[in-house]
């Protein structure tokens, strides 16, 4: 369960962290206000880049906290700049790096309550990870990618996958 | 390895199949040419909805074929309509449904060659699944979601996650 979550999430968060650096350089080169990139979105009623990064961070840190029965650090969702978003991602990675495989003992069978409003449901950790947490995490990584790609950032699938 | 791949992929492909039905109804209600939806994309040099669906199908079927050392059905990438895309998704699901947990015995250790042009690399099945195949699969599901969402289709995160 450790191997299925922590390195996978660290890789995805690292990709987003790298995107923040690329986006800042891109904004400077093109004379775009970086705050405009941070606030860009695919649809008026979808989260902007800021929100995609915050939710990727939350899905990762709160997900592993649920799986291990520990407490994740709380971040206030006050980031507005690309540099602050990078810091949020890097802090999330730093937290994930403190977790050990031993803390995931029994996580596959642990009953996890789904974090939905108005829905009371729980599932075993293994199903939670593969059917909820990872799809949700990659939704936010891919949507952040799509937002930046649509604004002209020169990133591709190999950037998204994180290099092999 | 079966549990980490087949049900997860079937769920994601089922979500996309459902999106095709929703998109067709949406196009009819709004008087939009459904072919326009099928050809919609987030950036001029990104794949359109058609390509996102085809790559989600390929990532799923070719990925499990690599993991099990079997042969996936080959589809010709000739789909142009929402109905044909739904058929492609449903055929992919039908193939995945033929696979059994027994066929995944040893898949976690099986050496998998990465399907990159100009890159010669291989990794154990478990890393291939979590670091390459699932991130890649969800990229295409989430990007299809983003394309349809941007065009006005009323879908949200609970649709994407597939219902619990």
Automatic annotation (TrEMBL), chains A, B:
SUPFAM superfamilies xref list: DinB/YfiT-like putative metalloenzymes (SSF109854)
Organism in which the protein naturally occurs: Chelatococcus reniformis
Superkingdom, natural source: Bacteria
InterPro entries (UniProt xref): DinB/YfiT-like, DUF1993
Designated name of the protein: DUF1993 domain-containing protein
Transmembrane stretches, start-end: none
